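Anyone? Bumping this.
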Amino acid sequence: MNFDIGYMIEIIPELLVYIPITLYLAIVSMLIAVIIGVALSLILVNKIPAAVQLSKLYISFFRGTPVLVQLLMIYFGLPQLFPWLNSISAVNAAIIAFSLNTSAYLAEIFRAALTSVDKGQTEAAISTGLTYRQAVWGIVLPQAIRNAVPATGNMFIGLIKNSSLAFTIGVTELLAQGKLLATATLQFFEAYLAVGIIYWCMTILYSWLQKWYEAKINKPYEA
Amino acid sequence: MIKVSGLKKAFNNIEVLKDINFEVNDGETVAIIGPSGSGKSTLLRCLNYLEKPDAGLISIGGVTAETKKVKKSTINRLRMETAMVFQHYNLFKNKTALDNITYPLAASKKAGSEEAVKIGERLLRQVGILDKAKHYPVSLSGGQQQRVGIARALAVDPHALLFDEPTSSLDPEWVGEVLKVISDISKNDKTMIIVTHEMDFAREIADRVIFMADGNIVEEGHPAEVFDNPQNERTRKFLKKYMQRAADSQERTELELLTV
C-alpha cells in the first residue's frame, strides 16, 4: 500500500487557506436562500392567488433538476440570454445557483414549520388585542423557527458540501485546490482525503453549534 | 352591554347559526348550554370575529360591527372589548406564565412594560399561581394553564369575558380549581358569557341561561326556570339525558371507589 500520511498532513495548511471562500459561498447563499424561502413559504401559507402557482413551479423546478445543471445554466447560459450578465463572476454565479436551489427546499421546510404551529396560538393572540401582524411576529414565528431549525441546519450542511461544485465553473475553493495539489504530485488519495476531512470537520463544528442553539431554544418547551 | 341580532353563520352550506338574537347586560353572567354541535362555540367565536359571521350585527361595549360592512379596524376594536378563555388554554408556548399576560398588554400598548408586570403579578396572585410566574406552559398542569389563561384574559380588562368550554379538556381533578376562579370573577360585576357543559356550575353562577340547539336559541331564562321547569321539549330532553349521564358517571365513580 502506498499511502503517504506525512504528505497529507503537510498539505492541510495549504487547503485551510480556502476555507474562507468555501464558507463565504455557503453562508451568503444560505442567507439569500432564507430570505427567498421565507417569502415563498408566506405565499404558500397565505395562499396568495397566482403567486402560489408561480411559487410551486419555482419550487418544483429547483428541486427537480440537479444543482450542477442549474449552476452551469446560470454561469454559461444566462449571459447568452442577457448579454449584460457577461461579466458575472464565477463566485457570484455560484452564489445565485446555490441560493435559488436551497430556497426551494427551505420554502417547503418553512411552510411546514409555520403550519405546524397550532392555530390556537394565533387565535389567543388576536383575541387578547394583538393585531394579526403582531401575532405572527411575536408568537407564531418564534415557534415556527424552533420547528424549522433542525431541517434548515441539514440544508446548511448540504450547502457547505455542495459549494464544492463551484469548482466546475472555475471557482478556486477547497476542492479545486485539493484537485490542483493532487494532479501536481499524483498523490490523489492523500489530497482528496485531506479535502474530505476538512469538510467533515466543518460540518462537525457546525453540528455542535446547532446542537447548542437547539438546546437553547428548546428550553421553554421542556417540562 | 352586548347586543347580537340576526347573527348567521354557515360552514360549507351547513347552517350552524340560524338567526341568533340576544342581549347581555353589563355585569351579567350568561351561561350558554346545549348539545354538541348546537352552535354555541361558534356563536362565542363570532362575537370576537375568530369566525366571521355571514350576517348580523354584533355590538359589544361601544363597538358595533355590522357583518356586511365591517372594517378591519372595527374588528380589532371589537377584539379589544373582549377577551377569550379557550378550551385548550392556548397559552403562548414560547412565553412564561407571566409573559403570557404581559406580552399582549405591552404589545397592544395597553400598559407600559413595568405596569404590565405589576398587573400580571397581581392577577397571577388572584388566580393563585404567582409562584409559577417564571414557568413555561409545558411545565404547568392543565388547571394551572387554564388559570393563567383566565388571568391573561382579565389583564386586558375587556368589556366582556368569553369562556369557551373552559373546563372541557381538563382532567377531573383540575376542574374544581378552575371553576372556583371563574366563580370568584363572576362576583366582581364582570360581563361574562360562558359556554359550558357543567350544568351545576352554570346554575350556580349564571344570572341567565341560554339553551341552544340546531343553531337556534331554544330557551332562555333564570337558571332555576330553565333547569327546574324547562318550557321547551328540546330543553327537557337534553337536561334529562344530561342528568342520566351524570348519574351514571356518579355510579361509576362510586363503583371505582369501591374496587380500589
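Late reply, but here is one note on the structure posted above: The CA atoms of residues 102 and 116 of chain B lie 5 Å apart.
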